[in-house]
From TrEMBL:
<keyword id="KW-1133">Transmembrane helix</keyword>
<dbReference type="InterPro" id="IPR018062">
    <property type="entry name" value="HTH_AraC-typ_CS"/>
</dbReference>
<feature type="domain" description="HTH araC/xylS-type">
    <location>
        <begin position="243"/>
        <end position="346"/>
    </location>
</feature>
<keyword id="KW-0804">Transcription</keyword>
<feature type="transmembrane region" description="Helical">
    <location>
        <begin position="98"/>
        <end position="117"/>
    </location>
</feature>
<feature type="transmembrane region" description="Helical">
    <location>
        <begin position="66"/>
        <end position="86"/>
    </location>
</feature>
<keyword id="KW-0472">Membrane</keyword>
<dbReference type="InterPro" id="IPR020449">
    <property type="entry name" value="Tscrpt_reg_AraC-type_HTH"/>
</dbReference>
<keyword id="KW-0812">Transmembrane</keyword>
<feature type="transmembrane region" description="Helical">
    <location>
        <begin position="38"/>
        <end position="60"/>
    </location>
</feature>
<protein>
    <submittedName>
        <fullName>Helix-turn-helix domain-containing protein</fullName>
    </submittedName>
</protein>
<keyword id="KW-0805">Transcription regulation</keyword>
<feature type="transmembrane region" description="Helical">
    <location>
        <begin position="129"/>
        <end position="151"/>
    </location>
</feature>
<dbReference type="InterPro" id="IPR018060">
    <property type="entry name" value="HTH_AraC"/>
</dbReference>
<feature type="transmembrane region" description="Helical">
    <location>
        <begin position="198"/>
        <end position="215"/>
    </location>
</feature>
<feature type="transmembrane region" description="Helical">
    <location>
        <begin position="6"/>
        <end position="26"/>
    </location>
</feature>
<dbReference type="InterPro" id="IPR009057">
    <property type="entry name" value="Homeodomain-like_sf"/>
</dbReference>
Amino acid sequence: MRFIDIFLLLISSAGLLHGITFAIYLTFFKKKKSTTNYLLSLILLIMAFRIGKSVMLNFGDNLEPLFIFSGLTLLLLIGPLLRWYAKGMTTTDFKFSSYSFIEIIPFITIFVISFFVPENVFETNQQNVIILFSSILIFCYLHLITYIFIVSISTKKLKKKNLNQTKSQRTIFEWLRLLIIGFIIIWISYVSNIVDNSIPYIIGPILYSFVIYFLSFKAYQLKIIDIDGNVFKTNNGSQLFSKISSLIIDEKLYLDSTFSLASLSKLIGESTQKSSQIINEYAKQNFNDFINYHRIEEAKKLLVNQSNEKYTISSIAFDSGFSSLSSFNSAFKKFQGTTPSLYRKKGV
C-alpha cells in the first residue's frame, strides 16, 4: 500500500474511531442519561458503520454484498434518528409516538432483502440487477436528504416561534444548525461521487472525520450533552417577565430612585434570585442595566425637549430616576457613548 493510501486510511479511520468513542461515552459513561444522548450515540454508531463500509470498500477487495447493502440501507435509519433527535432536543418530555416505527419500515424492508442478495451479484452485468441496485442507492440518498430538509425546516419554524429564547434554547438551535450542516456536507460528498465520480470515494470518510471532530468540539463547547428539550418546558418565565416589564416600563417605576431588585421581587412575589434570572434571560441585561436603560431613554426625551432648556443636567438626572449626577453621567455614557451635555447640544 502506498504512503498516500496509508495516510488517507489513517485520517478517514480516525473520525470513525472518534465517533464510536463518543457514542460509547454517551451511552455508558455520561452521568446524565437522556433519550437524546442515546439517539445521538446511535446516529454516531450507524454513521461509523456506514463510513467503515466506505473505507473498506475503497481500500479492500471482495467485500461481502451483505456488508455493502447493510452499510447502504443504514442511511434509511439515520434520517428518522436525526428527526427524533431534533424533536427530543426541542420538545419537553419527549416520547416516541406509537407510529414512530412506521418511519423505519423502509430500512427494515431493504435490510431484510439484503440477506437474499446473491454473493456474486456485483460480478454480473445484468441490466435488471444494475437498475435495482441504482434505484435502491438513489432512494436511500433521497430518503436521507428529505429527512435533513424536514429537520431543517421544522427547526427554523420553531426558532421563529420562540422569539424570547433562553441561553439554553439558543444553544440547542445553534447545535442543530451545525449538525444539519455537517450532514449536508457528508451527503453532498457521497452524492457527487455517485453522480459523476468527480470526487474520490474516500473523500466522504475524510470529510466525516473533520465533521465529527468539529461537532465533538462544539458539543463540548456548547455543553450540548447536558441539556435536552426540557429547556423548552413552559413555565411562568415569559409571563413573569411581562409582569416585570409592565411594572417597570408601563408604570414607570424606573423613575423612582429608590427602586431596587428587592423592591421588584416583593411586588411580584418572587425571590431576588428568580427576578434577576428572569431579567437576565429575557432582557439580556442585569437588573441595574435594565433599569438604567429606561432611565436614560427618559432622560434623552427630556434633554432634547426645548421646553426643558431651563432645567439643569442635574435636574433632568433626578427626574429620570437617578440618585446622583455621577451615576447618571456614567450610565448615559455607557448607553449613548457621549455625555448628557454633548447630547443636549447636538439636539439628537
